[in-house]
Design brief:
This protein is mainly alpha-helical and about 210 residues long. About 75% of the residues lie in helices and about 0% in strands. It is built from eleven helices and no strands. α6 runs antiparallel to α7, α6 (about 85-110) packs antiparallel against α8 (about 145-155) and α7 (about 120-140) packs across α11 (about 185-205). The longest helix has 29 residues, at about 85-110.
């Protein structure tokens, strides 16, 4: 509940972080929809997923989870591709989160130089950047319904797909159990630190 507790200590930062993170969920979908469209799959365009319309992308339950624990999920992008193309579209989702982290982190650093009047907004964007890195890390894991599992379905053999089916059969309970295990064992943190190091390296390259 760390993220929700921010509401009591810094309401402006919380609201900015929530709004930015919600837009990060939209970016996840836009990246996937764009590549699927490039691969001549008309479903994303037909259902409006190439727009930035929040009602198309955002899921109410996903937003509630985002508001409470800082981890949410958008509506799935409709596409029907196979093999390598399917895997590439799935991986565009975590890439979208990483680009969102880069964008929010860049804005946070720039605003922090403006003065005290922008510190609340800068702080919120910094939190949103961290949340997007966490999303990018978690969505890479091969656990249904995450993007990593879609890669396994697309490129894995029959045994790998059968194992994914078994994990999926447990539904949300199975997902949250694995989610908690990954967090408590430090796996999620390790992946997030790798992504964070790469992000900080990009900021150093541009002098921020």
């Amino acid at each position: 509940m760390f993220f929700f507790s921010l509401l009591a200590t810094d309401p402006l930062a919380y609201l900015v972080a929530f709004a930015a993170a919600a837009f990060g969920l939209v970016m996840h979908n836009l990246f996937q929809a764009w590549l699927a469209d490039r691969y001549k799959d008309t479903s994303p365009r037909r259902f409006g997923f190439l727009s930035v319309e929040p009602r198309v992308h955002l899921d109410l339950i996903g937003l509630i989870f985002l508001a409470l624990i800082g981890f949410g999920f958008p509506r799935p992008v409709p596409y029907r591709l196979f093999g390598r193309k399917d895997a590439q579209v799935a991986l565009m989702g975590p890439l979208g989160f990483f680009v969102a982290a880069l964008l929010f982190g860049l804005l946070a650093r720039l605003l922090s130089r403006v003065g005290d009047s922008a510190l609340g907004i800068a702080g919120g964007l910094g939190v949103a950047s961290d949340l997007m890195l966490i999303h990018a890390a978690i969505y890479l894991f091969p656990v249904p319904p995450l993007d990593g599992a879609k890669v396994v379905y697309a490129l894995g053999g029959s045994e790998a797909r059968r194992f994914m089916d078994q994990l999926a059969s447990y539904g949300p309970i199975g997902f949250f159990v694995i989610f908690l295990v990954l967090n408590f064992t430090g796996v999620t943190t390790a992946v997030r630190l790798v992504l964070g190091s790469f992000l900080n390296g990009l900021f150093r390259l541009i002098g921020l």
